[in-house]
Amino acid sequence: MLAHSPLSHVAFAAPSRESSPASTQPHSSTADKTTAFPELCPEYGPNYYAAFIIDPDGYRIEAVINDP
User: Fold this and answer.
1) Which structural domain range is residue 50 located in?
2) What is the rounded end-to-end Cα distance, in angstroms, of the chain?
């Protein structure tokens, strides 16, 4: 098993904004587990578009595309 902290983070490149796996999932929250709709994240760049899912083990999984 890999050791991880609550801040462990894995990102995957998405081929398009529409292909984000979270694009059809509603916002949800159970305890501190969260799924977020994809959105522009201008704090990371003008075209940074990402969605985050926190899995049951606490890993932050991100689908991201950085194209206009």
Assistant:
1) 9-65
2) 38
